[in-house]
Specification:
This protein is of the alpha/beta class and about 120 residues long. The chain is about 25% helix and about 20% strand. The chain has a six-stranded mixed beta sheet, with helices on both faces. Strand 2 and strand 3 form a beta hairpin. The radius of gyration is 13 Å and the shape is globular.
């Protein structure tokens, strides 16, 4: 299964970024092989619409699930419309989050867990 993990860096040892729409990177991981690719998030400094644009980036990768710390309502709706599963509350490294996912220790959500514009610098 291909999943997207929000990340502060470009490796499996990088920390999970608690922000979805304004994450620094998306690490796209094949859960069977642990092979991965990294996408720099162009929406990190967007004036608005970062969640929706980031969700579209994930849709284009073909990922079937997202692991992140937090996700706002616009991104959640966009991911849900594309049938991409959402797991919030992920912490630790990207590799640790993937292992928790594979072990069934992360809970899928169908609700945003933060308000619009979470993580945007004031």
């Amino acid at each position: 299964m291909k999943i997207a993990v929000t990340s502060t860096g470009k490796t499996l040892d990088s920390q999970v970024d608690p922000r979805f729409g304004r994450t620094a990177y998306f690490v796209i991981v094949d859960t069977e092989t642990m092979d991965f690719t990294v996408i720099e998030n162009e929406n990190i400094a967007a004036a608005g619409g970062a969640g929706i644009s980031s969700a579209k980036t994930i849709i284009d990768t073909g990922a079937q699930a997202v692991l992140t710390g937090n996700c706002g309502p616009n991104a959640e709706r966009t991911l849900s419309a594309a049938s991409i599963k959402l797991y919030v509350g992920a912490t630790g490294t990207v590799a640790e989050a993937v292992e928790l996912f594979k072990a069934g220790k992360l809970t899928e959500t169908t609700e945003p867990n933060v308000q619009t514009h979470f993580g945007k610098d004031k």
